Amino acid sequence: MNAFTAVFLLFLAGSTAGLWYLATRQLAALRHHRHQVPTAFRNTVTLEDHQRAADYNSAQVRLERLDLLLGAGLLLLWTLGGGLNIIDNAWRALAWGPVATGVGVILSAFLIMGLLDLPVDLYRTFIIEQRFGFNRVTPRLYAVDTLKKAALSVAIGTPVAAVILVLMDSAGATWWWWGWGVWMSFVALMLWAYPEFIAPLFNDFKPLDDEQLRTRITGLLERSGFKSGGIFVMDGSRRSSHGNAYFTGFGAKKRIVFFDTLLASLSHKEITAVLAHELGHFKHRHVQKRLAWMALGSLAGFALLGWACGADWFFRGLGVERPSAHMALLLFLLISPSFTAVLRPLSSHWQRQHEFEADEYAARCSNPEDLIRALVKLYEENAATLTPDPCYSAYHDSHPPAPLRIRRLQSMAV
Length: 414
Description:
Elements: H1 3-32, H2 47-78, H3 83-92, H4 98-131, H5 139-170, H6 175-198, E1 205-207, H7 211-224, E2 231-234, E3 245-248, E4 255-259, H8 260-265, H9 268-283, H10 286-308, H11 312-317, H12 325-340, H13 344-365, H14 368-381, H15 390-396, H16 402-413
Parallel strand pairs: 2-4
Antiparallel strand pairs: 1-2, 3-4
C-alpha cells in the first residue's frame, strides 16, 4: 500500500468516526432533554414546541449520519475504487485537447456527484421538512431548481475550470499564484453578480412596501452609517416556512433582504432588532475578515495543490492511473474536507465570537429585549434545538447555543 494511501485512509476514517461520534452525542442530548424545557425558556416555549424541535433535529442528525457514511463510501469508490479513472478514460477516448478533456472530466464528475446526492436531499426535503411542516416546495419546483443549479454550475464552472487548467499546464511552477488570483477574482465577481443576476433566478425580490417599518429601518441605517442599495422582501415562503434575513452584495450595491416568513412572524421592533444584529456584522467588518481568512485559506490550498500535482505518490496513493492537471485538481477538491475537518472547531469558534459581537452592537442600537423576543420566536418557528450537545455545537455551530446567547443578552438588558 502506498504510504499516502494509508494517510488518506487514516484521515478519512478519523474524520468520519469523529463526526459520527459527535452526531451520536447530539442525538443523546436531544433525547435526554426532550421532556423538559430549559428553565430560561419555560415562560416562552411550550413543551410541545420543545419536543417538536427535539424530534426535528433528531431526524436531521440521523440523516446526517447516513449521509456521512454514504459520502465516505462514495469517496472511496471515486478514488481507490477507480471511479475517476473510468470518467477520465471515457473523456480521453474522445481525443480532445487537455483543457477540454479536463473540463469535461471535472464537470461530469461533479454532475454525477450531484445526482448521487439527490436521494438524501429529496428525503430531507420531502420527508423530514414535510413531516415537520416546513416544506412548501413542489416536486415540479424542486426539479426546476435542480436543473437551474446544474445549468449554472456548467455555465460558471466551465470558464473557471478552463482558466485554472490552462495555468496549471502553461504557467510554470508558480502557476498556483496565478490560479489563486483567478479564484479570488471569481469570488469578487460572484459577490457582485449573485444579488443582481443569480438570486432572482430562484426567488422574487420586491422593495419593502411597509412604510412604517421602512421608516424605522431607515433611521437605524442612518444611525449606523450604513448605505444600502435597497431593502427587499424575498418570497422565501414559496419553498419553506423557515424565516431569515441577510445582507448580500458589497459596496454601494449592498442589499438588505428579509424573508417574507420573517416579516410575517415578528413585530416591527423585533425586525429592527434583528437588522441591528446584522448591522453589527457590518460595523465590526466581519464579512471582510471572513473574506480575508478565506483568501488566506485558499492561497494555502493552491500552494498545497501546486506541490502535490507534481508528485506521483499523490496520484498513485489515490488510485489514479494517469496523472494530469485536471485529475490533481479534482482529487484535491474531493479529499480536502477529510484533511481539514480538524480545523472546523476553530472556524466555528471564530464565527460564534462574531455573533456575540453583533449581539452586543444590536443591544446598544436597539432594545435587547426585542432581540431576545425575536430570537425566541425564530428558535421556536424554525424548530432550533435549545439543548444541543456542547461538543457537537462547538464543532458545527456558527451561532452560539440558544441558552448562552439569551443569557448574555439578558445581562445587557439589566
